[in-house]
Amino acid sequence: MENLRTFVAIDVRVEPSLKSKWEELKQLLHNDSVKWVNEHTIHLTLLFLGETTPLQVKGVSQALEKTLKNISGFKISISGLGLFGNPNNPKVIWTGISESQSLYQLKEKVDIALSPLGFEYPQSKFSPHLTLGRIKHIKSANELNCFIKSHKSLHFYDVEVNKVIFYQSILSPNGPIYKPLNELKLLSL
């Protein structure tokens, strides 16, 4: 069996309030080169593992089951729009997740559980977000920045987090395919 490309994430549904702003963004940037994320695969990445051996896959599943079995579900708020990268040459368009102590605790528990298996903590600060699109080339940077500024604190909706998913990411010409390897239910709210 060969290595898999994997990550740990929370699925998030796209509701009409976000979908309508996302459609406005697509319309605004219709002349630009943006790879938009498929709304049916949108997720909040807790930890990207990358190349994972078959032995590690089994270990990750077991470690997550053990670590998450006593964790209660919680709610997160999908809020605001933002950019990663230089404002004149942004690379990623995202919507944010409001500050959530429960989310940060979950992230820390996942990091600690998987560290002994050879997965290092990311050096950068955890910045929870949902990627909406990746910008290849943009001519409308000023218009995009104005749109983002006017929507940076807009509250879209709340999401109940009731499971964590260990995914395989299969790269394809039509975009990544995400195959669940293990779904770990959290305790009911």
Would you write up a description of this structure?
The protein is an alpha+beta fold. It has a single domain, classed as Cyclic Phosphodiesterase, Chain: A (Alpha-Beta Complex), CATH 3.90.1140. 28% of the residues lie in helices and 41% in strands. The chain has four helices and nine strands, in the order E-H-E-E-H-E-E-H-E-H-E-E-E. It has a five-stranded antiparallel beta sheet with strand order 2-6-5-4-7. A hairpin with a 2-residue loop joins strand 4 (74-86) and strand 5. Helix 2 packs across helix 3. 24% of the residues are buried. The mean pLDDT is 94.
How would you summarize this macromolecular structure in one to three sentences?
The protein is of the alpha+beta class and 189 residues long. 28% of the residues lie in helices and 41% in strands.
CATH architecture: Alpha-Beta Complex
> What fraction of residues sit in β-strands?
35-45%
| Largest β-sheet summary | 5 strands, antiparallel
Name of the CATH first level = Alpha Beta
Please give the share of residues in helix.
25-40%
Order of helices and strands: EHEEHEEHEHEEE
Annotate the secondary structure layout.
Elements: E1 4-11, H1 16-28, E2 33-36, E3 43-52, H2 54-68, E4 74-86, E5 89-97, H3 101-114, E6 129-137, H4 141-150, E7 155-161, E8 163-170, E9 177-185
Index terms:
single chain; 189 residues; alpha+beta; Cyclic Phosphodiesterase, Chain: A; 5-stranded antiparallel β-sheet; 4-stranded antiparallel β-sheet
